[in-house]
Structure formats: C-alpha cells, structure tokens
Amino acid sequence: MIEVARFFIGFAVLAYASYTDIKTREASNFLWILMAFLGIIFLFSYKPDDFFKIIMSLSLSFLIGILLYFSGMGGADVKAIWAISLLRPLSNDIFFIFPVSVLINSLFLVLPLPLIFFVYNAYRRNLEFPYCFFGYKTKASIAKNSFVWAMEKDGKKSISPQKDVDLSLYGDKKIWVTPQLPFLLFIFFGYITAFIFGNFLFTIFSFFE
User: Fold this and answer.
1) Comparing C-alpha atoms, which of 129, 139, 127, 135 is closest to residue 179?
2) Bridge partners of 90?
3) What is the CATH number of domain 2-111+182-206?
C-alpha cells in the first residue's frame, strides 16, 4: 500500500508540475516541498537494513542534481529529482537508486526528438543539415512570443541554443529555433516508466545477457 501511495503522490505532483511547465515553463516550489515532506514521512517505512542504501541514493541524487544545474538544466527539474529521491529513494532493480533510473528513463524519452524534428522539417521542406535535427524554422516575430531559443546569432547558425539573442532584431525573417523543452513532462513519464518497468538502460542490457 505504501508503494501505491508513493506512486500516486509522485504521479499527481509531477502531472500538475508538467502542466504548469508546458504552460509557463515554471513550477511552484510548493510542489517539491510537499513531495519532499511526504517522502520524509515515508522514509520511516523502510527497514533499518536499507539505511545505507538510502543515504547512497540521497547523496548521489543530490550530487547529480548539482551537476545538472551547473550544466544548464532548469532549477525545477533538479528540485523534482531531489523530491523524488525523498519520496522513493530505492527500487527493486539491480540498480536500486530510483531517482537516477527516473532521470535515465527521462533522457531515453528525449532521444527520439531529432528524428521528430527531421520528419517535421522534411514535411516543411526545410532539410538544412544538421539544424533540421535540432529545431525548426519560423518567423522571428512568432518565435519572440514562444518558448524557443534562436539557433542563429550574428549571422551564424549553431545547433546549440543561443539564449542571449534579441529576436526582435530579426523582424519577420524566418530563422532556426529550438524549443525550450518542458523537461518536467519527460521526468513525469520517466517516473511512471521507472516505477512500472524499471531502468530502461538495464532492461536493454538484460537482452544481451
């Protein structure tokens, strides 16, 4: 029953956080505080023998969160991983650190995006390599009011998002942009899949045993 409660608490909080991330690219800190608070209460349901594993999970999750933040991941995404580590630090997989499994599954779900961009750009006949794998073309005037980053700066294109570009300077010119991904949505599905199916990476490795 406790595992069911953990699942639905995480499901509800992450679902709402994903919704606000899609709408505004933000999520309230209250959501992570609530999940963490309930998670701390649930920590007492673990056996004393699990104490060392829990410490390992919390420590590794905190460290990974710090590294991800300084590598450019959004603050809400990092807080979500930390809150998940308190709600359910352990899983029954060989790799028992559940929040890392959530993160790995989330990243696996991002992998098809270049193919999706390619198909979209092929349909729009904008197959300019390699940019067609990382974004799409749109009018700068539209991009200015959208959750996107330019892939062009000072007349040069890049596959990396250019976060300091003033899109108003381009007027109605069509430029390459890449979306500001609502990564909480991927964490949400990563949470569900890690809870039900386990770590995708270890599942793949199991086929080669």
Assistant:
1) 135
2) 97
3) 1.20.120.1220
The residues near 142 (Cβ < 8 Å, ≥ 6 apart) are none
Query: Cβ distance 122 to 82 under 8 Å?
Result: no
Q: What are the start and end residues of each CATH 1.20.120.1220 domain in the chain?
A: 2-111+182-206
The residues, ordered by sequence, that sit 6+ positions from 170 with a Cβ below 8 Å of its Cβ are 140, 141
Asked if residues 94 and 202 have their Cβ atoms less than 8 Å apart, the reply is yes
Q: Of 84, 103, 94, 104, which is closest to residue 43 (Cα–Cα)?
A: 84
Q: For residue range 37-94, what is the model confidence (pLDDT) as tens digits? A: 999 999 999 999 999 999 999 999 999 999 998 888 889 999 999 999 999 999 987 7
Residue 77, amino acid? D
